[in-house]
Amino acid sequence: MPPGAVPEPAPVDAVVVTYQNEADIAACLGALARLPRPGRIVVVDHGSDRSGIIAGDLGAVVVEDPANPGFGAGQNRGVGLTSSRYVLLVNPDAVVEPAGIAAGVAVLDASPDVAAVQGIVTDRRSGQPERSAGTPLGPVHLFGRALHARHLLRLPLVRRAVTHVPGFAALADHVVRVPPGATDVEALGATALLVRRGAFDAVGGFDQGYFLYGEDLDLCRRLRRDRWRLVTLPIPWATHAAGSSSSGWWDHELVWWEGALHYAARWWSSGQWALARAAAAIQIVPMVARHPERTGEVVERLVTRPRRLRAGAGRSQ
Questions:
Q1: What span, in angstroms and rounded, lies between the C-alpha atoms of 105 and 314?
Q2: Structural domains of the chain ordered from first start
Q3: How, if at all, do strands 38-45 and 183-184 pair?
Q4: pLDDT tens digits, residue range 278-306?
Q5: ∠ at Cα 72 (92, 109), nearest 5°?
Q6: Mean pLDDT across the stretch 251-266?
Q7: Helix H or strand E encompassing 243
Q8: CA dist 26 to 22, 105, 179, 272, 281, Å?
Q9: 20 Cβ partners below 8 Å, 6+ apart?
Q10: Residue 123 phi, psi dihedral angles, 5° rounding
């Protein structure tokens, strides 16, 4: 390269796992095509609508899997069809900012110990930043969700406590969602996660035991365990129509709690695990009250399976 020449940015492959997202997929892929050096775009279609057809018409490599084994399994399959050293793991209802992704590539180029990076993800409906980086899930998060305490974070006194009192530090990322600069964090949400392919492969990709929710926390934990860094940037990264694949509150909560309890069963201490079970018991009551005919399913997915996972010999700490 001639002296003073600016190196060309590395190509970025992208993997999108879609489920009934035909209203979103064109905008998602259109933004990926505008990356400075777009590589291969792989769409893993777990649904039965026209998402795969639309993606194929737009030039993506499409893999059809109506068995729908879960987000992490789909991402692993898609990443296996890519070859660039950086891969963007994208939700189908996210529209990335090409300039933001280019800045993320520059971070990975400059810091070989960084495994993954993500910037500010904005909720398309509210126009506000989502909680996409910060601390891992803990018991306080489960109790807050079970007791519907999220509205308390709107109160000025609570917001001050969360950001200034050490005991509330685990909740700070619920209030402060734009970092002051490039910041190392413990966890990144997999909305539009730019990963170093070598790091992703080194830890085995996503744990395919998760169906949806929790798999990104698990991936981040294993990356950090192997001494990789995770970085969040204070720049526009993507807009996101959160929950566009969701079929309603009840089913959304069932899947979210299943993922959260899978994560807790695998990683939490005995005391934290006891708190997780208590929080789940609180959550189960209104779910069973609303759909008593599905009591057996709730107990199986939020009690029996997590307990079986916890007791399994393969649990990592």
A1: 35
A2: 12-132+177-240 (3.90.550.60), 137-169 (no CATH), 249-310 (no CATH)
A3: unpaired
A4: 999 999 999 999 999 999 999 999 999 99
A5: 75
A6: 95
A7: none
A8: 8, 24, 30, 42, 41
A9: 47, 48, 49, 51, 245
A10: -70, 120
- pTM for the whole thing? 0.87
Q: Is 302 helix (H, G, I), strand (E, B) or coil?
A: helix
The gap between the terminal CA atoms of the chain, to the nearest Å, is: 47
Kindly state the helix (H) or strand (E) to which residue 96 belongs, with its residue range: strand 94-96
CA trace torsion 287, 249, 146, 278 (10° rounding): 40
d(CA 113, CA 230): 9
Using the 8-state DSSP alphabet, how is residue 9 labeled? P
Q: What band does 136 get if pLDDT is binned at 50, 70 and 90? A: confident
Q: What is the pLDDT of residues 48-81, one digit of tens each?
A: 999 999 999 999 999 999 999 999 999 999 999 9
DSSP structure string for 100-165: HHHHHHHHHHH-TTEEEEEEEEEETTT-SB---EESPP-HHHHHHHHTT-GGGGGSHHHHHHHHH-
Inter-CA distances, 228 with 162, 184, 231, Å: 28, 10, 10
Q: Report how far residue 243's alpha carbon sits from residue 255's, in angstroms, rounded to the nearest whole number.
A: 12
